[in-house]
Design brief:
It is a single chain. This protein is 71% helix and 0% strand. By secondary structure, the protein is mainly alpha-helical. Helix 1 packs antiparallel against helix 2. The radius of gyration is 39 Å and the shape is elongated.
């Protein structure tokens, strides 16, 4: 807790200075409430800050016992391996589905292009026939 105070209290003082310099008012009550919330000490909120020292944490745990962040986070190596395998399988399954969708879209796109080619070939053929007919008509008029 004392290490946290050494970090937070200067930040709160900087916040108060910023609020003063930016013309937003003192923000004194806000800063005081934050100090009281962090320290639980009303004297710290009034500005009479005691000197904090870094202390070694006192614990009642036997030496060699490590405390976890929360009881639900303790996992055996087997559980970690199973979790990693499950995540890998899920990722591979999603990747297969995405690849399947990509192939489907590509086939659809190719079919669309093939249809367009067919339409344009027919249109080109019709225009060539029309051009021939106009040339024949023009040649017969010239005679």
């Amino acid at each position: 807790m004392s290490v946290l105070l050494l970090v937070i209290l200067p930040m709160l003082a900087s916040l108060e200075q910023f609020m003063l310099s930016s013309g937003r008012g003192t923000g004194e009550s806000c800063v005081q409430e934050l100090i009281m919330a962090v320290t639980g000490d009303e004297t710290a909120a009034t500005g009479d800050m005691p000197a904090y020292q870094i202390r070694t944490p006192s614990t009642t745990l036997p030496q060699g016992v490590v405390m976890a962040a929360s009881p639900g986070t303790l996992h055996s190596p087997q559980q970690l391996a199973e979790e990693a395998t499950r995540k890998r399988e899920l990722r591979l399954m999603k990747n297969r589905e995405a690849a399947r969708e990509c192939r489907r879209k590509k086939k659809e796109y190719v079919k669309c292009l093939e249809n367009r080619v067919a339409v344009l070939e027919n249109q080109n053929k019709t225009l060539i026939e029309e051009l021939k007919a106009l040339k024949d008509l023009y040649c017969h008029k010239a005679e």
